[in-house]
Amino acid sequence: MIVCSCNVLSDDDIRAAVAESDDAVRHAKQIYGCLGCSAECGRCARTIKTIIDEALGPCAKSCCSGCPHSHTVAANDEAAQPAQFALAAC
């Protein structure tokens, strides 16, 4: 389904960008950047956010330290490493 008529982005394009991103994509602006375009009219932003939330699953509401999408190192754990997972960069 086409979500953004201005840039001809489909829901599959958005889900793929979320899955391929090294960082947890949380905003429509990040999706546009990953897909090499920018917002035009902005009507799709709310739908894109909904698709991002669905793609991230339970982590969409809040990622905290230790979440596989979080790239932060715990303040008290110097040996902690950023989360590693097999996702390509945008």
UniProtKB/TrEMBL annotation:
InterPro entries: BFD-associated_ferredoxin (IPR052371), BFD-like_2Fe2S-bd_dom (IPR007419), BFD-like_2Fe2S-bd_dom_sf (IPR041854). The keyword Electron transport applies. It holds the Pfam family Fer2_BFD. Residues 2-54 form the BFD-like [2Fe-2S]-binding domain. It comes from the Bacteria. Keywords: 2Fe-2S, Electron transport, Iron, Iron-sulfur, Metal-binding, Transport. GO terms for molecular function: 2 iron, 2 sulfur cluster binding; metal ion binding. Belongs to the Bfd family. This is Bacterioferritin-associated ferredoxin. The lineage of its organism: Bacteria, Pseudomonadati, Pseudomonadota, Alphaproteobacteria, Hyphomicrobiales.
